[in-house]
Amino acid sequence: MATRSSSDDNGAVDDKPSEHACDCTPVTAVGAESEVASLPPQTTVFSGPGSLSWLLQAWREPIDGTGASTEPTPGPVDAPCPATAAATTTTTTTTTAATAGTAATTSTTTTITPGAATATATRTPAPPTPALPAGNGQRKHGLIDARPLVSYCAGHIRGACHMLFDRSHRSPWAPRTMLLPPAGASVCVVCASESDAIAIAADLASRTMAVRAILIVTETHDQAFCQALQATTAAAAAGVKAKAAATAGAAAVPLPHVSLLEVGDQSTALWSPLPFLENSLGAIEAATDRRTVLDVGCGAGRDAVWLAQRGWHVTGVDRQESLLSCAEFFGQDVRDRVVPVVADIEADPSALPQGPFGLVLVVRYLHRPIIPKLLALAAPGGVCVFATFLMDAVKPRRPQFKLEPGELEAIFTRDDWQILASAPRFLLADGRPMAAIVAAHTGST
Description:
Blueprint: H1 32-38, E1 43-45, H2 49-60, E2 142-145, H3 149-154, E3 156-157, E4 161-162, E5 186-191, H4 194-206, E6 210-216, H5 222-248, E7 261-262, H6 275-287, E8 292-296, H7 302-308, E9 313-318, H8 332-335, E10 338-342, E11 357-363, H9 371-376, E12 378-389, H10 407-412, E13 417-427, E14 433-441
Parallel strand pairs: 1-6, 2-4, 2-5, 5-6, 8-9, 8-11, 9-10, 11-12
Antiparallel strand pairs: 3-7, 12-14, 13-14
């Protein structure tokens, strides 16, 4: 079966690390003095709630319509943490003032606009929790936490993506390179040392990513960092409560809120799925109550993980044993919702998982002989999302892996299917044309 990987002619861009940027040798500082001198200007060392607030402001600052964003405003100066005062003596904070911004409110939409994206929130946000990284349309900053796993699990900012960085490796993010956001993304970073800050900033710059802020949290500061996250959450919740009381003219009542502190190995994806799928999610969830997915030709599982983080239970089928590798790097809640099936369904269509499924997802994959079997796996009232390359795409090279104009519409123009939305032609970021469709199964079987 064709798979979305770099080695397959019917594969696609999203699961190839090279599509984000090159794997280059990171810059490694050679001494403490050069490390201090070479620290990126947008770097500070954690020393208390003020430095944490500085990072959170940088993370929350919206990106304007042109894609530009300003540097974060410095936060209040903290007294050095008593246990590690020496660690904060080389702090460098050189930033330019910016207009304070607030995170945009996310919402679900059923408008289908190829090339843009509308995010569906995975949690119920409440002040002061920063908005979780959203889709390409929202264009939020990502948050990479590159500290060792033990520090990350002890406590991290909710919404961060854990990415181990090995400066000695030619591909320093391996094996999680596929989890990096796309080229041109804007990110904030938490790391454990000045040398890591220097190397990470250089590596991300080589991938044409904009690094807005780097907060260095040494291992000796792990506990204080968690305490600062708890204190910031409590202070913001108290502020919201007081404001509500003043507005209502009555005694404030406790308001629900989500803590900034998250403990464990949970990790938030910094990428978006195919924009057509992301934009279609509202229409899909309105059409079916069954939250089960068959992801055909799932590759590394980016779409599968994205759906699992939104509560869907995904069965991903691919012929490669390395399928769904993305799911391995997320929390148990995601791993529990993703079931990998290794099968060559082109050679043996009977190896297809048994349905029915609320959603049959076919993205960047085409094998015409099994299309009727795939559609039969959709539950009554279920949905199929089909999106793949058009005939004039440079890759894949083989014509049998590419659609003729209008072919998708013809497949779903039948009595037991209703087309909900279609995009006859749109371009990926690399310029390749695709067609996509969302259709609901109206039959009884």
